[in-house]
Each structure stands twice: as structure tokens, then as C-alpha cells.
Request: fold
Amino acid sequence: MSQNIRMSRCAIWSAVSTEPQAKKISLDDQLRLGKEAAALHNLTIIQELIVPGQSRSIVLFEDACRRIEAYAQLHELIKNRSIDVLIYLDRSRLGRKASLSMAVVELCREANIICYELESPPATLKQSDSHDDDIIGAIKSVGAQREITKLVNRHRMGMISRVQKGLFPHGVLWGWRRRYTESGDEIIEINEEAAHIIRLAFIDRYLNGGFGLDIIAEELRNAGYKSPGGTDWTRAILQAILNKIMRYAGYSEVNRKSRTNRPYTISPGNWPPIITLSEAEAIIVERQRRNTARKSISKVYTFSGVIFCDRCQTSMNYTGIGIGYPAVRCSYFHEYKKHKDGMTKGENISIKKVRQAISSGIAFLQNEVTRAQVLSEYNMQADSGTQDKIDVIDLELKQLTTKAERIHYDYYIASKLSDSQHDSLMLNITNRQKDLGQQRSKLYAQLIQEKAKSNISSTLDDLATDGLYMLDNPDFRQANVWFRKRIRVLIRDAKIFGIEYMSTE
Reply:
């Protein structure tokens, strides 16, 4: 034990900058190792500095102090010379960027504070001004930054590989449970209680009932159902499940909305679905509709979410103010009629006219011959080749993933590539994956809409059989949901432009 010191006070730094780091050595592990080092050198622990969660890519120490409390606390300790030793695991924990970790070490040195690295502890607790130590420290900082990049890349490729194998990206999701057979084989089976809640919330109430997440959460609380964490249901908890709706339909996916431009990947999962693919797609369509017509759920009027402007394809808004009769108006201005002052007037149409058009359309469909004619016309437009385009993109994405894995192997394992070669090759792949992911997202949304407009036989039968009854239904919410799943009334130049039919299957 070193005794050439008057050093007696220390702070322990505990942080992770990436998820793989957190899994390798946790915050608690770092604190435990720091306390052992402090005890070894008879140091009194003044403060434990903890960065909760993953730190960001911060370059400047001043920015780190403003954004993360632990850095601000460390700054005060250094400024007031309240500690003699700063204990940390390695340079990578002081900052994701090399510049940040080097700044922390330099500030400590200027204040005569010893930097004690647990992975390579100093032989003595004595401040050093060695030029060699400076060079080695800088190399460690840059190396630590490089290692973080490697960890991130490995984690990213590992997640994509799990999805392609049909596994859950982050372990078994709520709604299922893991069971092992006597031979040790893993079986993923449905948690029936959770599945009941999921179908009740998202099929019965969200999709078929037309209710918002706040109301659904309240209903689940009143019924005594508990959330995945055992707490009361909230909008945020339901929103988190809604974001993973394709997994509940039996599909593994990752990077649906990646903030770092990671490629979107989806594959059939190795688990039984709780809802059908068509139900999941219908929920996605309904969610997109609500995003463009938010008031159609909280305030329900006749034909909310059923009437669309044919010029801009947006849902028209209910209005009766200054018109004298219930009507809908497009939020955007379209030039079809001019006032005396030359200003254009937004399109609007009375609810009465829309009702008359729907009623006439239903009467038209009650004739089997005309119903068959409509069905024939829609079937001729069914195959647009969109799925084929998606398949081509999926194949290229798979090939790019295989290529990226080969590049990582050549760099990390075989050491055949330099840093610059690896970065250049991966940048090209990442940019292409991003471009393909954006194309696929647009095509997939288009495919869902096309599916909704094909196979409309049951829709036409429903309208012919129950359409007039639903038209007179005093429960606007129930009637709107029923019609919304089957028709879109298109308005152009303040007139009925047409009626589109959609599949309910």
C-alpha cells in the first residue's frame, strides 16, 4: 500500500455510455470496485458521481456540466479541490467522445487530483507530469471512443440478426411467457390474461369502438386490470404497446423509428400471434387517420373521419358556425369559388348532402347486379405490384446486412481492414439502408391502403344489408366507426365526387 501521500479524499465515478457497456459492467459494479480501491488506499469517499442511463455524444466539458448533473458535481469538486483522487473504471466512462474524457483528466491534473483508473491502476498515488503519460492518456481516450463505436456497431448488428431469426429484439414481450420442456427446449406461449386485455383494448375499444387511449386506460383501471408492470393503466403504457403492434401480430421488427438512421428490419416471429396481421394493419391505418384528424376521436360528429377532400386527401372538419346547418370544411383553401374581394373560399358541404349520397349509394348496392359490377371494377385494380417492390427491397436489405456482418468480421476479428476502410464501407451501407428503409416505409403504407381497397365483397354485402340501419343509428361514435372501416366519401368543388369502398377483412 502506498504511503507517500497526504491523499485522503476521493470521489467514485460510475457511468455507462452505451447499452452493451451497461450489460458488461453495471453502475453498481463500478461503485463496488471503486469502494474496494478506496479501502485499499485508506481513502475517504466524499461523493459517488453517477451518470444514470446512457450518456450522450457530448464533446465539450461545459456542455456536459449543463446537461448531466454528475459532470456539474464533479466540476464543483475539482473547482473547490474537495477531493484528492478521482476513481473511475476506464477512460470510456468519463465521456463517449475522446475530447470530453481528456478534458476531465486535464482539469483533475491542474487541480492536483490523481486520476485512478481501475482497469490499469497507478503504481503510486502521486501526481505525474510525464510527457509519456500524457501521450498514453490521449491514446487511451481515443481508443476508448473507438471501442464504444465498436460496441454500438456490434449491438446494432446483433439486434438485426435477432429479428431476422424471428426472435424478440429485447426478450419476450408482455403478452407471452417463456416455458421449457423436459428436454430443455424453449417454448413461447401466449399469456391468455394479457392477450385478453390486449384484444379488449386495441381491437374491441380502439379499432372497433373508436375510443381514444385516455378513455381506454380509464376503462381498464375501472375494470381492475393491471398493466405489464402491475400498475394502473395510463395512456403512455397503451401508447408503448401500440408502437409494437406488429409484434402482437407475430412479426419481429426493429428500428421502426430509429433516431440514428438504423435500417428498419422486419421478419416473421417464432411466436404465436395474439392479433391477426389484418387487424394490426387496420390499427396502423386507424392510427394514421387519427394523426391527421385528432379531434375526430375526442369530439364525435356525424360521419367523423368518413368525409375527405379529394384534392388533398385530408379528413374534412365539422363546422356549423356561420353556415346555419351542420357541415364539413376542408382545412385548406382550394380555388373553386371566389368572393368579390378575390379571396378563395375553403370547400364545404352539408352533412345532409353527404347523408343523401351515402343513402343513394346503399340503395344502389342493394341490387345484386350493380353490386357485382362495383366488385368487378375494384378487382381489376387490385394488383399494383407494390408487394413485389417491397420484396425486392427486403432482399437487398438482407444482402446489405450480410455484407455488413462480413465487413465487421474482417475488421474486428480478422483485422483485414483499417479504421478508415471500415468506416467508409459501413457509411456506404448505412446510407443505402436508410434510403431503402424510407422507400419501404412509404411502399408499406401504400400496400396497406391498397389492401383496404381490395377484396371488398364483404364490405358491399354489409352496406347492402346493414347500411341503412347504421345510417339511422343515433350513436354517432358507433356509426362512424362502422362506416369509417367501409367507405370514404370524397368531396370536390363542394360536391360529392365519389365514394370509395374498403375491405374489412
In short: Confidence is low (pLDDT under 50) at residues 1-5, 141-145. The radius of gyration is 31 Å. The longest strand covers residues 44-54. The chain has four domains: 9-160, 165-169+187-290, 295-381+455-501, 384-447.
